[in-house]
Design a protein that fits this description.
single chain, alpha+beta, globular
Amino acid sequence: MDIQGILDHLPHRFPFLLIDRITELVPGERVVALKNVSYNEPFFVGHFPKYPVMPGVLIIEAMAQAAGVLSFRTTGDKPKDGYLYLFAGIDNARFKAQVTPGDQLLIEVSIERKMRNIFKYKAVARVGGNVVAEADLMCAQVPTGAAAAKA
């Protein structure tokens, strides 16, 4: 899935869209996404400007965005249909290495469990084959706009 497909499945836009490509997607199972980390990222201006390191919370957010694409593809809904996926929990987050400009973040997210409108995922981010972060994520589908009015 290229950037146009991602934009169709996520409500996020610059400067908060944190995935560039989906290289693998099996609805109901897993997704693999890429984030090309550039020195031009807006967060590097203020986050250790003389030692640019991607903030860990943004690595987690990139994982969540990949999970969002997987969830939308699993349910067949899209943001334009009046639905969003919001964080419901983050557990066991660990950061094992720094992510810096020039790195390519490979994000793998697998669905561990689905209960009605709540998904639980296992997420791992790697750079050059090495794990840089991992977390257990939980997101809930919430209706917005017209979908909320129907609920």
